[in-house]
Amino acid sequence: MTHHTPIAYKYADADGLRVFYREAGSADAPVLLLLHGFPSSSHQFRELIPLLAHKYRIIAPDLPGFGFTEVPTARDYVYTFDALGKTLEAFVDALGLTRYALYVFDYGAPAGLRLALAHPERVSALISQNGNAYLEGLGDAWAPIRQYWAEPTAQNRQVINDAVLTLEGIRYQYVEGVADPLAIAPEAYYLDTLLMESRGNRDIQLDLFYDYRNNLTLYPAFQQFFRDTRLPTLVIWGKGDPFFIAPGAEAYARDNPNAVVELLDTGHFALETHVGHIAERIVTVLGDAID
């Protein structure tokens, strides 16, 4: 059933930035915070938001370096995942959010889980859609990035740029592992590519790729958080994802026996092919646990 709930497009001043975000749903409904991944923005949730806004207050920000969030040059922002986590913390505080469920995808996982570690008492539930927190979840597609971590030379940086930050590289992330690539709307990867061409964005993204190595050292802390809280958790994962592979989804159940793990026959951007199913599973599995 489609619910025609209007989506508002807003900005919040937080952490010296002008954070763009999408909001829908009743102001007094339980909050669901949607955290996007690379190379996208809150745009990736454009079809999910209307399916959930009848039940939850949806907040979907664009992380610094992505989408329409504005980072003043004078801010001298350093693009690390620690910084993204701190910006998220400032963002939820600016909006006065003291209780929320987290939907984490790709980069949204290490950023959002940092927020969870900072304020564990605020998190009501967790949805991980190809949001990795385990070493076994890193697929072979990380090989050139691991090489860049080991040897952060200009040449290795250029390899990442040429492989990942082009239209072809971005389209690959949308269509790889998908049964029918023609099911993927092209405007998503064209918009991501266009925004990647914005001033300085390629260097920002390459800095974040290099910093991603620091997420791996936090995996044990994320896993301890899962064990300590045993949050109501839905892990719903495109099993054709070449970056975050199925063992990373299954590992959640090891640390949280309450986690429901479901593998879908699709790729990295599972919302592009399974948005209705994912919305239904969020409501069915987590229901009123999102409070």
Q: Could you explain how this protein is built, in words?
A:
With 291 residues, this protein is of the alpha/beta class. It has one domain (8-141, 215-289): Rossmann fold. It contains twelve helices and eight strands. The protein has helices at 48-52, 81-94, 108-118, 143-150, 154-164, 167-175, 186-196, 201-211, 213-229, 246-250, 252-255, 271-286; strands spanning 8-14, 17-24, 31-35, 57-61, 100-104, 123-128, 233-238, 259-264. An eight-stranded mixed beta sheet has the order 1-2-4-3-5-6-7-8, sandwiched between helices. Helix 3 links the parallel strand 5 (100-104) and strand 6. The radius of gyration is 18 Å and the shape is globular. The chain starts with 7 loop residues before the first strand and ends in a 5-residue tail after the last helix. The model has no long low-confidence stretch (mean pLDDT 96).
Structural domain count: 1
Report Rg. Answer: 18 Å
Strand order of the largest sheet: 1-2-4-3-5-6-7-8
Percent helix range: 40-55%
CATH classification class: Alpha Beta
Total DSSP E strands: 8
- Find the CATH superfamily: Alpha/Beta hydrolase fold, catalytic domain
Biggest sheet architecture = 8 strands, mixed
Q: Flag low-confidence runs.
A: none
Strand content: 15-25%
Indicate the overall shape.
globular
**Order of helix and strand elements from N to C terminus:** EEEHEHEHEHHHHHHEHHEH
The helix-and-strand class reads alpha/beta
CATH architecture label name: 3-Layer(aba) Sandwich
Number of separate helices: 12
CATH topology-level name = Rossmann fold
How many angstroms separate the termini? Answer: 22 Å
